[in-house]
Amino acid sequence: MTSPGTTPNHSALPRNEQLFLGGTLLSLICTFLPFDGISVLGSSASENAWHGIGILASLLVLAVFLVALAGTFAKSSIPELPVSLNLIGAGGMALAVLFFLIRWLTLGNVLGVKIHLHWGGYVTLIVTIATTVVAVMRMREAGEAMPWENSGSSTPPPAA
After folding, report:
1. Which helix (H) or strand (E) holds 121?
2. What is the DSSP string of 90-118?
3. How far apart are CA 46 and CA 38, in angstroms?
4. Is residue 31 domain-resident?
5. Mean pLDDT of the chain
6. 98: domain range?
7. For the segment 13-29, what is each residue's pLDDT rounded down to a tens digit?
8. Would residue 151 count as lying in a domain?
9. How large is the average pLDDT for residues 31-54?
10. Cβ neighbours of residue 155 under 8 Å, at least 6 residues apart?
11. Average of pLDDT values for 31-40?
């Protein structure tokens, strides 16, 4: 830890930690890019990810970013949790990807004109998926079991 008045040494953080913090910040920034829109007769309009179910996805990205910051720079101030911060990060980012995909797949029509995903939507999806992969890599690196893996504590089903 650093003493008050000194800056933390960010290069001392593990590579996956740096990638995850940067990825969540970049994902959050990407939510303000033009996510979807329409183009008609040379005119176009777009909106960012903070609309519809994209609000939930964007709020999840924000929450994961804040949890990652707290877990990295203020770990002693976080109470004991029943799940790891790595699982919260991976699960939150995976849910954000799911909600962004739902938003993309449910884009409809306005007066017969198809709403399409803009470049910002593609960037948001790519960055959020990549950050989710890094989150899972962090879990593996920490030696944590994936939620679907058998922990060995349950009893096998009875033989038929």
Report:
1. helix 119-141
2. HHHHHHHHHHHHHHHHT--EETTEEPEE-
3. 6
4. yes
5. 86
6. 14-38+47-141
7. 888 889 999 999 999 99
8. no
9. 88
10. none
11. 90
Q: What's the token pair of residue 97?
A: 């990807």
Q: Is 21 helix (H, G, I), strand (E, B) or coil?
A: helix
Is residue 34 over pLDDT 90?
Answer: yes
Closest CA to 86 of 73, 71, 96: 71
Any domain includes 154: no
Q: What one-character-per-residue DSSP string does 44-90 give?
A: EEEE-S-STTHHHHHHHHHHHHHHHHHHHH-GGGSPP-SS-HHHHHH
Residue 90 contacts residue 64 (beta carbons within 8 Å): no
For residue 41, the model assigns a pLDDT of 79
**Cα–Cα dist 67/141, whole Å:** 19
Q: How many other CB atoms are there within 10 angstroms of residue 19's CB atom?
A: 18
Which residue(s) pair with 117 in the sheet? Answer: 36
